[in-house]
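USER: Write out one fold?

ASSISTANT:
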Amino acid sequence: MQIKPDQLDAHLKRGLRPLYTLHGDEPLLALEASDAIRAAARDAGHTEREVHHVAGAHFDWSSLLGAASSMSLFAEAKIVEIRIPSGKPGKDGSQALQHYCEHLPEGVVTLVTLPRLDRQQSGSAWFGALESAGVTLRLDPVERQALPQWIAQRLAAQNQRVAAGEEGQRTLAFFADRVEGNLLAAQQELTKLGLLYPAGELSFDQVEAAVLNVARYSVFKLGEAVLAGQVSRVLRMLDGLRAEGEAAVLVHWTLAEDIRALRRCKDAVAAGKPLPMALRENRIWGLKERLFERALPRLGDGTIEHLIEAAHVCDGLVKGLKHPQWPQDPWIGLQRLALQLASSMQAAHLPRGATAQRLVLQA
């Protein structure tokens, strides 16, 4: 059974299941979910705790199976945690997990923690056994567009709120910009607001004075922002990546690979291949898939060729070469490339008939 993280508390109040599987790469949500399950298990009398850390291929799975099945009549009920940080239990581990799920020990609440799983891992027999035998929670990062609502919900939980209307939206947007990609820091800032100010409404000035700039940016999230045409966010993310010491070469590779993917998909469609098939063959999934589907039919060949040429020039800049028509600073060059791609994608996302003036105003 799969449930969402915000459903966990209500689920636990109805009673414990013998097996819980957490998978995802959001540390705060994983920590909170694990703590909630442990607390519920302790309240139900599971006073002992046993942790098995699967560090590599040489983990002794027989020790886990033996320990779980060795409960005596007078033993305390316990919590068994199985941590697989690689998300790859191996052949022996796969068989052991399936056997474990088929013979769940009585008096034991088992908690399995995994990182974010790819399509092959989530479709494996061992993960299917975990899903079938217990409760599964997928713990994904909170995306930027959902972050203001997430912050508002967390404020409400501590009896605080922002002003209604446009002012409140501005406050939440400011908060989200400062903590994007770093939910642990976001929770710390929320706790700080709870300590600094009483219950009730928070003003923009109060939030601005209290919340630090603790955002963390990812080059892969940068790619999504560029393809979505989010110009102001792209500029902010580039500044953040540079300040965090990210390699300019990696940022360029991300942007250039998206441009090359646009070219490959465009060529495939021109050759008669359906767009969904072209996207799958080029491994375009999730949010990027939706962005490609919406923009690709309206991107001209000339626009894509211009972007490819710009990516080629920028490749030289990040490797120390110079170009007479481009800035010498590689990060300024990356900014120029990102803005060219973002502006092209933004124009392609606009409704037909929208003017260039509207594009400038949005930027």
Observations:
- Confidence is low (pLDDT under 50) at residues 355-363.
- The first helix runs from residue 8 to 13.
- The beta strands are 2-3, 19-24, 48-53, 78-83, 108-114, 135-139, 160-162, 200-202.
